[in-house]
Amino acid sequence: MHRFRLFISVAAVAVMLFPITYGAYAQAARELPAKTFVTVQNAPARTPSEASIGVPNQIIGALKIRATGGDAIISRLVFKTIIDGARPSVPESLENVSLFDEHGVIVAGPVDAGSGGAIILSDTISIRKGSHTYTVRGRLRPSAVSHGQVIRLITRPSIDWLIYDVKSGRKIIAPPLVVALSPVSVGMGTISVYKSSTAVTSTAHPGTLTHVFAYVILDATKSFDDLRVTDMQYTFETSQKSPIGLKNCGLYDQKTLVTSILYYPFESQKYTFPFVPTFTVSEKTKKELALTCDIASEASGSYRWSISETDLLTAVSVQSGIDAISTIVPFVGTAIEVTP
Q: How far is CA 101 from CA 41, 248, 270, in A?
């Protein structure tokens, strides 16, 4: 009996004298290598090469998480944002960032990137045994990133993630590697206008209907978004001072009129052609438009439609609503001689 009491007293004294040692031992026990192992790697096949500025749920990275031996739980993971090879100086370059599983379901987020572009996701994510692919999606803030920049996410799962074995509850330490996700080029809507290679007939007769005076190309092949073109300017020149000459001048996409105003030009000046609200140019495509006019039966002289550096071309990105970057390649149109 006395020996039993002495044993309890010695144990109690040990606990009081060495609490840190016992606590450290308990923590070490929880962090012993678990039977479940987790590896993380980049998933380039699921990462597109481009992302649109200002558009929600753009994929900015993808990763493959593999759990072997059993199921795992991730309670925290951190990504760092790299823009053009450096940490962003503007916080919240990304907003509404979420992690999506392979079925398109949000499993963590949304959150905004914080100082230095850190993305911290604190939701509990269940990782079933096997290999699973996840995508990181968010909105690139127009005030924080610019057209033509390259964004990349990096993470260190061994330090930045908290992973636990479901069965034992023990902490899992991922391999000590930096995982760099595939780079993604970011941009916005862009459009350019230039003269088409399609030739026009340089002579016409009075009374001719829908004569083509100029062909132009609206080029969105480098755009990151579909574009709604709102208006475009032409410079009109004529040798005549008479109001009787051309009429019903407008722009056509093949045989469809796409401008909402038809002009009766009678003096040299700029004319702005507003487009119908439904007219769009899809990203990575281009359209050829024809400027046609009816020629009055009393018309004579020469008429020319050109585009100068000071003419306007305005368009809006369909998804983001941001004004597109427009480029004008000026050209001098063909002078059309109207002769009886």
A: 15, 55, 54
- Looking at residue 116, its pLDDT comes to 80
Q: How many alpha carbons lie under 13 Å from residue 299 in its C-beta half-sphere?
A: 27
pLDDT of residue 240: 78
Among 187, 213, 242, which residue terminates a domain?
187
Q: Which of 92, 28, 102, 13 is nearest to 59 (CA)?
A: 102
Taking residue 129's Cβ as centre, other Cβ atoms within 10 Å add up to 14
Distance (Å, whole) CA 313 – CA 279: 14
Sequence length of the chain is 340
| Backbone φ and ψ of 46, nearest 5° | -100, 5
Q: Is residue 11 part of a domain?
A: no
Taking alpha carbons only, the member of 212, 215, 281 closest to residue 249 is 212
pLDDT at 1: 44
State the CATH number of the domain containing residue 74. 2.60.120
| Dihedral of the alpha carbons of 320, 323, 327, 331, in degrees to the nearest 10 | 120
Residues 174 and 238 occupy one common structural domain:
no
Indicate whether 101 and 208 sit together in one domain: no
Residue 139: strand pairing partners: 95
Number of domains in the chain: 2
Q: 0.85 cut: is pTM over it?
A: no
CA 302 to chain CA centroid, Å, is 46
Domain ranges, residue 148:
35-187
Same domain, 200 and 166: no
Q: Tokens at residue 157, please?
A: 């799962």
Q: Determine the angle formed by the axes of helices 2-17 and 19-30, rounding to 10 degrees.
A: 80
What pLDDT, in 10s, does the model give residues 45-80?
999 999 999 999 999 999 999 999 999 999 999 999
H or E, element range at 37: strand 37-42
